[in-house]
Write a structure and sequence with these properties.
Elements (H helix, E strand, L loop, with lengths): L26 H21 L6 H16 L1
Helix pairs in contact: 1-2
Organism: Certhia brachydactyla (short-toed tree-creeper)
Protein name: BROX protein
């Protein structure tokens, strides 16, 4: 069994663009995709931010997951 995750905990986290040009045809759908991209980027930035507190992390995670759930 290989442990590809043991050296860098964020290694499996690839950038996601949420560019669904053929699928997201309405402005509202494009806004949701843009919000998803921004909230994911912010959440990943908080993982390496030394000044981040648990409340900031919880708020960022809640925002990201609420957008994913709809």
């Amino acid at each position: 069994m290989t442990h590809w995750f043991h050296r860098n905990p964020l290694k499996a986290t690839a950038p996601v663009s949420f560019n669904y040009y053929g699928v997201a045809t309405t402005p509202a759908a494009s806004k949701v995709c843009n919000d998803l991209r921004l909230s994911r980027t912010r959440l990943l930035e908080l993982f390496t931010d030394l000044s981040c507190n648990p409340e900031m992390m919880k708020n960022a995670a809640d925002l990201y997951f609420s957008l994913l759930q709809g």
